[in-house]
Specification:
The chain is of the alpha/beta class. It has 10 helices and 21 strands. The longest helix is centred in the N-terminal third of the chain and has 16 residues. It comes from Leptothrix cholodnii (strain ATCC 51168 / LMG 8142 / SP-6).
């Protein structure tokens, strides 16, 4: 089957919507023809809504499989998220013994080298653990350890590590942010019990963002602003989980006003795309029920979110479609330096999501290839 060379509809360009045609060639966008359109009119009159493919930088699982399962799990996860419009993702590890992390990375590497059949692009690894604070494990198993540059280099040699979450207040971590950045890794602050001052110091050393803002970090108090306060006062980028369980809509709006490059992640688990029941999250058993995923004690443990639902949730709390789209695509792509992803413009990769007027996914194209 030949890939389509043209998609008609209401197309979101970097300059706003146009009603017209998106022309594709050799897996990239060749040009866009059309007339300007108000965002509120997108999808009206039976026209398809054409958006950039979603970019998810925090994915633990989907389709009943967890990234830490290794084997064919990565392909299953990539295919499940692709059906929901995610065209590029970072495979995200859990805190675990090093041999388990190595095994997971060895399974991720082939998916990075060659996109899984029918699946999203796997851009590399988000190493969410083990370099975190045991006081803020959240749903991470208790295998936290101090980071060393040699250890990270050895893991990176197995599969490319794009993001590293660390707690900067852990002894020695602050001094390692600059060399990690020099080695090409993006450092995020997360699973941290540090103070506001610790957060500011980490940003000054080169930390670029915050992992699932508000969750598993010291909270904002007016006399002790914590990591949340450091993010809201100083961050240019942060992830947030908009499943409307992890973060109240009011807190999402506060973050949107404060952090220009705020982008959405799913923090999806093996329960994503599956019926209610028990699933694995690293070494934990988690239970999916009523749209949430939790440990036995009730702690939220990742999510069952997909980014098409994230888009709908953002619009439900008041964001216009064009801004909601940027929060699930463009800002994340910019954060990791991928100007060829997360936007519909000439020269960008032809990663496209086509939605109906009710924002349900109609078609997904990755490199101009239509995924079923």
């Amino acid at each position: 089957m030949h890939p389509p060379s043209r998609i008609d509809g209401d197309i979101l360009t970097p300059n706003g919507f146009v009603r017209g045609a998106l022309h594709l060639q050799h897996g990239r966008i060749d040009r866009i023809d059309g007339t300007p359109l108000d965002t509120a009119d997108a999808g009206q009159g039976g026209h398809a809504i054409v958006l950039p493919g979603f970019v998810d930088l925090h994915v633990h699982g989907a389709g009943g499989r967890d990234i830490m399962d290794a084997g064919e799990a990565v392909a299953t996860v990539a295919r499940t998220h692709a059906r929901h419009g995610t065209t590029a993702l970072l495979a995200t590890t859990m805190t675990a013994p090093l041999d388990e992390i190595r095994t997971a990375l060895a399974a991720i590497a082939p998916a990075v080298a060659q996109r899984p059949n029918g699946g999203a692009r796997v851009l590399g690894v988000h190493l969410e653990g083990p370099y975190i604070n045991t006081a803020r494990l959240g749903a991470q198993p208790d295998f936290a350890r101090e980071l060393t540059l040699d250890e990270v280099a050895a893991l990176h040699a197995i599969a490319p590590i794009r993001l590293i979450t660390l707690a900067p207040e852990v002894d020695g971590h602050l001094a390692l942010i600059a060399p990690l950045r020099a080695a090409g890794h993006i450092v995020q602050i997360g699973h941290s019990n540090g103070s506001y001052e610790d957060g500011v110091a980490a940003l000054r050393c080169g930390a670029a963002g915050f992992t699932h803002l508000f969750n598993a970090m010291s909270a904002l108090h007016h006399r002790a602003p914590g990591m949340v306060g450091a993010a809201l006062a100083h961050a240019q980028h942060a992830e947030i989980i908009p499943d409307l369980l992890h973060v109240h809509p009011g807190a999402i709006h506060a973050a949107l006003r404060a952090i220009p490059g705020l982008y959405c992640v799913s923090d999806a688990t093996a329960a994503t795309g599956m019926p209610d029941g028990d699933y694995r999250l690293g070494r934990h058993t988690v239970h999916k029920c009523l749209g949430g995923v939790r440990l036995a004690d009730g702690t939220l443990a990742g999510s069952a979110l997909t980014l098409d639902q994230a888009l709908r949730n953002l619009m439900a709390i008041g964001l216009p479609l064009d801004e909601a789209s940027r929060r699930v695509s463009t800002h994340a792509a910019d954060y990791i330096g991928r100007s060829d992803l997360g936007r519909l413009q000439a020269g960008a990769l032809a990663d496209v999501v086509v939605l109906d007027a009710d924002l349900s996914v109609r078609r997904v194209l990755i490199g101009a290839e239509e995924e079923s």
